[in-house]
Design brief:
The complex is a heterodimer of chains A (1225) and B (354).
Chain A (H helix, E strand, L loop, with lengths): L1 H13 L1 H10 L7 E4 L3 H5 L18 H9 L3 H13 L9 H34 L2 E6 L2 E6 L8 E5 L7 E7 L5 E5 L1 H4 L4 E5 L2 H4 L5 H6 L3 E4 L11 E5 L2 E5 L4 E2 L4 E3 L3 E8 L5 H4 L10 H34 L5 H4 L8 H15 L7 H19 L13 E2 L11 E6 L6 E12 L2 E3 L2 E2 L5 E2 L25 H8 L3 H12 L4 E4 L5 E4 L3 H12 L2 E6 L3 E6 L2 E11 L7 E7 L5 E7 L1 H5 L7 H16 L3 E10 L1 H16 L4 H12 L4 E12 L3 H10 L3 E5 L4 H10 L9 E5 L4 H20 L7 H9 L1 H7 L4 E6 H7 L5 H10 L2 E5 L3 H15 L2 E6 L5 H6 L2 E5 L6 H4 L3 E3 L4 H39 L12 H11 L1 H10 L5 H6 L5 H4 L6 H26 L13 H23 L3 E2 H21 L2 H6 L9 H6 L2 H28 L3 H15 L27 H7 ...
Parallel strand pairs in A: 15-29, 15-33, 29-32, 30-31, 31-32, 33-34, 34-35
Antiparallel strand pairs in A: 1-8, 2-3, 2-4, 4-13, 5-11, 5-13, 6-7, 6-12, 8-9, 9-10, 14-35, 16-17, 16-28, 18-19, 20-21, 22-23, 23-24, 24-25, 25-26, 26-27, 27-28
Chain B lengths: L25 E2 L5 H27 L3 E5 L6 H7 L11 E8 L3 E2 L3 E7 L6 H5 L3 H4 L3 H5 L23 H4 L5 E7 L6 E2 L2 E2 L6 H7 L11 H4 L29 H7 L7 E8 L9 E2 L2 E8 L10 E7 L10 H32 L4
Antiparallel strand pairs in B: 2-12, 3-11, 4-10, 5-9, 5-12, 6-7, 6-11, 8-9
Helix pairs in contact in B: 1-10
Classes of the chains: A alpha+beta (1225), B alpha+beta (354).
Chain lengths: 1225, 354
């Protein structure tokens, strides 16, 4: 259900520009909107859009003219139309009209059929959306109406889990105070629920239908716009004015949650709703091959015109010297007897004949190929994520081959590299580590899905999704070891988490940072269940017994302190301070008696950090009553002071957090998505540079960098750029550059200085010579300076010299700017991958945008070109699909140009024999059908199915990706080679039959050297030669390839004989003049001798060249291919993918990802109100939620809840950062 | 994609078909030394054998060309035809030639034209196949392809056959005489019928129906002869009334336009029924008496009579045997080069260098 609607939105958004165009025509600019409730007559005066959605372009009557008009706007089609018109001029027409019109009609028909089917599905889904039912208040009663019949000013009733049909003004709801909850995931990508509240006057109407029917207020508000978070308007009712804002609006696309019913007044309907207005146009992306192809086509035009001119000049000369003597037999009209004019006409005639060098089917074929490749992506089971039932999706079908050329990947962190799930993984308590599993011999066992989990069934309040593998910790708890208990007590007390208890024992934690949630959840499972809190107390169920602690103070977290503490009074009256924080900070404040423990714990911390875990140290302290009282007084005083309050509090906190007793440390795993380090390693081997652009903090980002293996201890240096001014940044960047260049400079030290700078300036060459590994980490505020015009060059230089680049604390706009920077400076293909709304700008900017259809909603997916569920699929998308697509597309283009040159240039050579009279060599039907029937399918099947190297080997040898990045398979040089190949082939194709036919007769003495027999011979040779050539080009002969290649040959002969049969001739004698030629020439041995010789001479040089290339000077691809074939002969081998080992031993001393000030909120009790007043109806407690969510298994739902509830993601807020904001920073 | 009916947890999972997963069983050939080198050698051998065979065949064929444009007594006619106003004046001339030894087997007599561009686009297009298939309607209304002045004559009468091709039909005729040293001169008998393609004679060219009730001339009533013709189309062959109209062999052969400006077209085949010529064309002196009508001096053309025998692959053709032998040699050279390169460098490529 959810998915269906999402897809609707998506579909509509794609089609938006068209919708806009249609819609703009019939709507005057609206200044202000007047809506009177329950008064259709009044509202109709303004002719507002109704709620019908029309995304379909055509109807049965407009289809043909509209579609044709659109198609002829394309340059290629228009070109062929012009050719067609030229052909109708008898003086010029060197080809019959059908040679152009048949391919043109076929191309137009294929496109039209595609457009028609698309439109049909749009009609169908429009129909489906438009006929959804909603309850509308009409004439005092609630009636079921289709969505499309809902009008502005209607009052409609919504029920729980229904989609909002239009933009509504909330009037009343089932909840107290006119509250209602909505999920806006489709609108803005945020998965948390939002609250909307009706005006008090209207919420009093409740569900009293009679009163609602009498409701006759008038709303005057803004005209339709696309601002999702803004609404201004006024409600006039009973001589009163009420102002309206966005908090009272329910927008189309939202889903009503946890609210039994609500009533709303339709303000905007149909295409004027904010959802529809918000779709925005997506930039049309084109691939580099597209651009190259356009250039090449222009070149070909140039070439065509050159040939035309040469032949026209030839004709002029010929007419003067030879043709004029020939007039007796021809008797040209007067105006054609002028040689120069004749040359002019000949030029156009040759333009018509030679037009097949720019094949009309090229563009269509390329589209077909890309469509096919996209389907292969959609169909790939190895990119299907079964947990979420999400297959990969190619959302644009025009970029596939560019996937094989990517050089830079810009990746988001949260949700893309990581799952944004924190898992309590290990801990060290009192010098003993827990969390590892050992086998009977005392060896550490790798933890996998199958490792048995600890049984927490003793604890009825446990979180069932929590997994822990080391049972010794539970034993320790059961043995009631005091320090272990204290450890978990600390975790249960020292935090700012809010509990939710829907039903008895069904606890849900709302944590501000996922780290905290993980820690409290761990404590919960180990028997210290944090169950409820008030501003003054915390209730913990310790091994089943409720214990209420008095919360005396929260010493809140901030970036400088890097720790937080709570002071509580136990039921026994003891005063305790519990503290958790970064180890470096906490270790400084320990009691000296802890030295030994500190030493062991420190070792454990190193160990944890080596595994890429996020660590925290825990400590406690018993407080003296007197000391505390005194301190408390000072605290109260300080917290009421007006100036330097923060500072004073800091000093006080510092004062009491001394002489702590160390308890131990926790290690939390920021769970990476599956296979991320392997994928990154593999992509790095493919020479793809991966940049991480994250909104996270420096430390978190670095931590992930280490756990993804992007940063390693053995790197020569990690540069951290965090200057606050342009000068600082510049200095840091320069220093970094110098230290990279420094050691390598010695290599070039023997040359003079000027030479050196030359070498440096050509840094693409120079980059290769850098052997050492560097990493660059740059902070958001520094990046703002570095992206300024005068620093960007050095930034690019340094960044490209580094193996790894991580940008942290970047805004969405900066992400886009970084991508733009690389696009501008490196001319490389960029790919951006992300999952959240904050990645949209980057996804739209990059050449290829990939959306992770993950937890943060659909925004990224909506604007992406490809989407799938897991980061690791990127490897397959690029190394398998991308590489294949590129390979196929390049081979396709090479062959296509070759084929058309070989086909067409025969006319050029014949020009010298036939007085440059634009006489065609071939039968006109052959010209008509050659490209679209005889040779299209083999090359299409090659372009669709070919595999130079199979998928396993593509993945195993990532350096096979290199040719794509270097643009080796199709470039201008390749184009020249293949056209030259085509030209040579056409030369051979013409001159061998010419030589043979000049004096040939049939074996019965009758004629064979006539033009028609010659045409049939050349055409047959041509078809055979290009078929053999495609056979050579095909690396992977599936049954389809066989069928098409042999089939094309068979079809050629079948059509040849059919076209030259008696029957067709008897019907149209002037169209099928080749009657009998095939029969009379193909039964001659000389014809076959000519065909055989031509084929051999055309093909063998190519075979020799290919052989030399592959066998003697093989590329990497050839070698792998050879290896693959050798292995296949030996039988399948066990696949051993390289395992990537994490080698980091870096100490991660950071775990808090949350913001300051939450402690204050708790102690003030402000955030308790909502929670306590609506415990039973709080959005998240609804049991309906889970079934309503498409396909999502329970665990993800709860994870999302724990992570998101109540805490808006930092970057969702930053979504609309503007340039001004950036400069202000 | 296919619409999935189910809404189960894996309802959107792609099908596990070999096609969709791109795992279709396939044959992936590659150019290895084991396949390529033998192919080269074998092809070289094949071309060599074919070339030798062709050479032998060509050596056994005989061809004789007699250029009569302005040779011998034809000089006079050549001069006469320079002036178009003399078109109505007939001109006969004689050319002698010698056959050094008996030409065994079937002997074919061709007329050859040089520098005559039958392959000009506008010339080739200037014909109406629908007319020549004998359709009554097209007979009276020639197609627009037969551009003026070849469609209607000055008085507006449709021309049959219309168009430039038919108009310029070759109209010299030959009488070949054999002059044995010890006997009377004898006429060399020629078959002038059955020398066109079967399909042309029977399908592509047909006379307008006469229904056996009226004559061919009546069938062509309302049309006129082409401008340059001396006789109407139904009166082309006075010796054989069945060889008249559109199905006249000479017309059919002329209408099959040559691909190149130098061409030869079949004139007749030696009839080997009579005693003197049963084995072929005996050695000795011959003369050709030519009814010299066709002007070629405008376009600096040449006319010739070609006497030739044919082999299994056509007439005397030196190009193909030479081409085959050259190709064979080139392939052999290439394969030797390939082999040596392979032996020197190729082994290295086998190793995966990573």
């Amino acid at each position: 259900m959810n998915g269906a609607c999402f897809r609707e939105t998506l579909r509509i958004c794609r089609r938006w520009p068209d919708i806009m165009a249609i819609w703009k025509e019939d709507v005057r600019v609206e200044e202000e909107r007047h809506v009177r409730a329950n008064d259709r007559e009044y509202n109709e005066r303004f002719s507002y859009a109704d709620n019908r959605i029309k995304t379909a372009k055509y109807n049965a009557f407009t289809f043909l003219p509209t579609n044709l008009f659109e198609q002829f706007q394309r340059v290629a089609n228009a070109y062929f139309l012009i050719l067609l018109i030229l052909q109708l001029i008898p003086e010029i027409s060197s080809l019959s009209w059908f040679t152009t019109i048949v391919p043109l009609v076929m191309v137009l028909a294929i496109t039209a059929v595609k457009d028609a089917t698309d439109d049909y599905f749009r009609h169908k889904s429009d129909q489906q959306v438009n006929t959804r039912q909603s309850q509308v208040l009409i004439k005092g009663t609630l009636q079921n109406e289709k969505w499309m019949n809902v009008r502005v000013g209607d009052i409609i009733k919504l029920e729980n889990n229904q989609f909002v049909a239009a933009d509504l003004l909330l009037l009343s709801s089932s909840e107290p105070y006119g509250l209602c909850y909505i999920e806006t995931a489709e609108l803005d990508g945020e998965t948390n629920l939002k609250v909307r509240q009706a005006l008090t006057v209207t919420s009093d109407l409740a569900n009293d239908v009679a009163r609602l029917a009498d409701f006759n207020a008038e709303v005057i508000c803004e005209p339709p716009n696309n601002k999702l978070d803004k609404f201004t308007g006024t409600l006039y009712w009973k001589d009163n004015k009420y102002s309206l804002d966005n908090e009272k609006m329910l927008l189309r696309g939202c889903v009503l949650r946890n609210t039994e019913w609500c009533f709303g007044l339709v303000i905007f309907a149909g295409l004027q709703t904010k959802l529809m207005q918000n779709c925005g146009s997506t930039k049309f992306k084109r691939t580099s091959i597209d651009r190259l192809m356009n250039t090449l086509v222009l070149w070909i035009f140039g070439f065509l015109i050159c040939m035309g001119i040469i032949l026209a000049i030839g004709n002029t000369i010929w007419e003067q010297r030879v043709g004029s003597e020939f007039w007796a037999y021809l008797q040209w009209n007067k105006f054609t007897s002028n040689a120069i004019f004749s040359g002019f006409l000949t030029f156009w005639s040759y333009v018509i004949i030679l037009n097949t060098v720019v094949p009309i089917s090229l563009y269509v074929s390329v589209e077909v190929l890309r469509l096919g490749h996209s389907y292969f992506i959609n169909w790939d089971r190895r990119m299907y994520y079964s947990h979420k039932d999400t297959p990969a999706e190619a959302r644009t079908t025009t970029l596939n081959e560019e996937l094989g050329q990517v050089e830079f990947i810009f990746s988001d962190k949260t949700g893309t590299l990581t799952q944004n799930i924190m898992v309590f993984n290990k801990c060290s308590i009192n010098g003993k580590t827990y969390g590892d599993v050992y086998d009977e011999f005392g060896h550490k066992v790798d933890i996998t899905e199958k490792t048995p989990c600890v049984d927490f069934s003793f604890n009825p309040l446990r979180d069932r999704k929590f997994r822990f593998h080391d049972s010794s910790l539970v034993e320790a708890i059961k043995l009631e070891e005091p320090l272990v208990q204290e450890f978990f007590r600390l975790l249960a007390l020292c935090h700012t988490v809010m509990p939710e208890e829907r039903n008895e024992g069904e606890l849900v934690y709302q944590a501000q940072s996922p780290d905290e949630g993980a820690l409290v959840t761990a404590a919960r499972n180990f028997g210290f269940v944090f169950r409820s809190r008030t501003p003054e107390t915390i209730t913990v169920y310790e091994m089943g017994q409720p214990v209420t602690y008095q919360l005396l103070a929260i010493l809140d977290f901030n970036n400088v302190r890097k720790r937080m503490s709570v002071i509580v009074r136990t039921p026994k009256g003891q005063l305790k301070l519990y503290s958790k924080g970064a180890d470096t900070i906490l270790f400084d404040r320990l009691d000296p008696s802890n030295d030994e423990l500190m030493y062991t714990t420190s070792e454990h911390l190193n160990e944890f950090a080596g595994e890429g875990l996020r660590t925290l140290a825990l400590a406690y302290k018993d407080l003296d009553e007197d000391v505390f009282d005194e301190w408390m007084k000072q605290l109260l005083f300080a917290s009421t002071s007006l100036d330097n309050r923060e500072e004073k509090l800091g000093v006080l906190y510092e004062e009491i957090e001394q002489g702590l007793m160390l308890l131990g440390a926790t290690a939390i795993e920021d769970k990476l998505q599956e296979g991320v380090p392997e994928t990154i390693a593999c992509l790095t081997l493919a020479n793809i540079k991966i940049w991480v652009l994250t909104g996270d903090k420096l430390e978190t980002a670095m931590n992930i960098g280490y756990s993804c293996n992007m940063l390693r201890d053995d790197m020569n240096e990690v540069f951290i750029i965090s200057g606050h001014t342009t000068l600082e940044v510049q200095r840091e960047l320069r220093a970094a550059k110098e230290s990279i260049m420094g050691p390598s400079r010695e290599i070039f030290s023997d040359g003079p200085d000027t030479e050196k700078t030359d070498i440096y300036s050509s840094d693409s060459v120079f980059e290769e010579t850098i052997i050492s590994e560097y990493a660059l980490i740059i902070n958001g505020h520094s990046l703002a300076h570095a992206l300024e015009a005068d620093l960007e060059q050095i930034l690019v230089d340094v960044a490209c010299l580094c193996k790894t680049v991580i940008c942290c604390r970047v805004t969405p706009l900066q992400k886009a700017l970084v991508v733009e920077l690389i696009k501008r400076h490196k001319r490389a293909v960029t790919l951006a991958i992300g999952d959240g709304a904050n990645d949209v700008s980057m996804i739209k900017t990059a050449h290829i945008g990939v959306g992770i259809s993950g937890q943060e909603g659909m925004q990224a997916v909506l604007s992406s070109d490809y989407s799938f569920a897991q980061f690791r699929y990127l490897q397959r998308l690029l190394l398998v699909h991308g590489r294949w697509s590129y390979h196929r597309m390049c081979n396709f283009l090479c062959y296509f140009f070759y084929k058309n040159f070989a086909f067409t240039l025969v006319h050029f050579w014949y020009g010298f024999q036939c007085g440059f009279s634009a006489q065609t060599v071939y039968d006109q039907w052959f010209i008509t059908l050659f490209n679209i029937v005889y040779t299209s399918l083999p090359v299409l099947s090659m372009g669709l199915f070919d595999q130079d190297v199979n998928e396993q080997y593509s993945l195993r040898y990532p350096n096979l990706y290199r040719p794509g990045q270097l643009n080796q398979l199709f470039n201008k040089r390749k184009f020249f080679t293949c056209t030259l190949h085509g030209i040579c082939t056409s030369f051979i194709l013409f001159f061998i039959p010419y030589g043979a036919f000049i004096s040939a007769v049939r074996d019965d003495g009758t004629q064979i050297s006539d033009q028609q027999a010659f045409a049939v011979t050349i055409a047959t040779s041509l078809v055979i030669v290009v078929s053999v050539q495609i056979g050579l080009d095909t690396n992977y002969w599936t049954a389809v390839n066989h069928f098409f290649i042999w089939g094309s040959l068979a079809v050629y002969f079948a059509i040849l004989f059919a076209m030259q049969s008696d029957g067709l001739f008897n019907i149209f004698p002037n169209q099928f003049t080749f009657i009998g030629t095939a029969r009379n020439s193909l039964d001659q041995k000389i014809v076959w001798l000519v065909i055989f010789l031509t084929t051999v001479v055309c093909i063998m040089p190519m075979v020799a060249v290919r052989f030399i290339k592959t066998d003697c000077y093989p590329t990497q691809t050839d070698k792998v291919r050879l290896l693959q074939q050798a292995t296949r002969r030996q039988g399948p081998q066990e696949q051993n993918l390289r395992r990537v080992r994490r080698t980091s031993s870096r100490r991660s001393a950071y775990a808090f990802a949350h913001q300051q000030g939450y402690g204050e909120l708790i102690t003030s009790g402000k955030n308790m109100k909502v929670t306590t007043s609506s415990t039973s109806t709080y959005p998240l407690s609804s049991p309906e939620r889970c079934p309503g969510t498409r396909g999502a298994p329970d665990e993800t739902t709860t994870e999302a809840e724990t992570n998101n509830t109540g805490f808006k993601r930092e970057f969702d807020q930053n979504q609309d950062v503007t340039v001004e904001d950036l400069e202000a920073r | 994609g296919k619409k999935q009916a189910g809404t189960g947890p894996l309802s959107r999972r792609p099908d596990n078909s070999a096609f969709k997963q791109q795992r279709l069983p396939a044959w992936s050939p590659s150019l290895t030394a084991q396949t390529v080198l033998p192919t080269f050698y074998i092809l070289s051998l094949v071309c060599l054998l074919l070339g030798i065979w062709l050479v032998i065949t060509v050596e056994n064929t005989y061809q004789l060309k007699v250029d009569y444009t302005n040779s011998g007594s034809c000089e006079r006619c050549f001069e006469l035809r320079k002036n178009a106003t003399n078109a109505k004046i007939t001109c006969e001339c004689l050319v002698n030639f010698n056959v050094p030894k008996l030409i065994l087997g079937d002997v074919f007599f061709y007329y050859g034209l040089r520098n005559f561009h039958q392959n000009l686009r506008r010339y080739m297009d200037s014909r109406d196949d629908a007319q020549m298939v004998g359709r009554r309607k097209n007979l009276k209304t020639p197609s627009s392809y037969c551009a003026p002045p070849f469609d209607y004559d000055a008085s507006g009468v449709p021309i049959a056959p219309c168009g430039a091709v038919a108009n310029s039909m070759f109209n010299d005729s030959f009488i070949v005489m054999y002059h044995p040293t010890n006997a009377r001169s004898a006429l060399v008998p020629l078959y002038r019928k059955g020398i066109a393609w079967y399909t042309d004679k029977n399908v592509k060219f047909r006379n307008p129906p006469t229904n056996d009730t009226f004559s061919l001339q009546q069938a062509f009533e309302g049309t006129t002869q082409p401008l340059y013709w001396q006789r109407p189309v139904y009166d082309l062959d006075r010796s054989d009334p069945l060889n008249n109209g559109f199905i006249n062999d000479d017309l059919i052969i002329w209408m099959r336009e040559a691909a190149f400006p130098n061409f030869k077209k079949l004139y007749g085949i030696l009839s080997r029924v009579q005693g003197l010529f049963t084995e072929g064309l005996p050695a000795g002196n011959y003369s050709i008496s030519i009814n010299y009508n066709y002007p070629v001096e405008y376009f600096r053309g040449r006319k010739e009579v070609v006497i030739s025998t044919v082999s299994w692959f056509g007439g005397q053709n030196h190009f193909l045997p030479i081409a085959y032998l050259v190709t064979s040699g080139l392939i052999l050279v290439t394969s030797i080069v390939l082999t040596s390169v392979y032996v020197k460098v190729g082994k290295k490529g086998k190793n995966m260098e990573e």
